[in-house]
Amino acid sequence: MRFNKVLYAFMLAASVASFTGCAATPKQDSTGQYLDDTAITAKVKAAIFADPNLKLFEIKVVTFKGVVQLSGFVGSREEELKAVDLARHVSGVKAVQNKMSVK
User: Fold this and answer.
1) What positions does the domain BON occupy (predicted)?
2) What's 94's DSSP letter?
């Protein structure tokens, strides 16, 4: 009987620890958030690549908790604004940080 209580306590502690491992922290996504961010990144990259003027440039897209950061180089200020606009209109994007530079 005592063994069952010890085993139960151990299993409870292990399950609590495993759930805590999937939780989000201020600097790290939860598992679900990571998958959402990955999907947002893919959608933003697809939107940028679909634009014939922007697909020629190296624009890096990183998403963290719904905030998209665009970095890299573009040919003009208009193309920079177009990339930001495309990213803003992707579903799930909360904000866009523009770290791009004009060549």
Assistant:
1) 36-103
2) -
Answer whether residue 21 shows pLDDT above 60. no
Among 59, 61, 29, smallest CA distance to 43 is for 61
How many domains are there within the chain? 1
Q: Which residues contact 39 (CB under 8 A, 6 or more apart)?
A: 92
* Model confidence pLDDT, tens digit, residues 40-63: 999 999 999 999 988 888 899 999
Q: Which domain holds residue 72?
A: 24-102
Residues 90 and 43: their CA atoms lie apart, in Å, by 7
Residue 13 lies in a domain: no
Edge-to-edge strands, sheet with 59-64: 59-64, 67-74, 95-102
Per the CB < 8 A criterion, the answer to whether 44 and 68 are in contact is yes
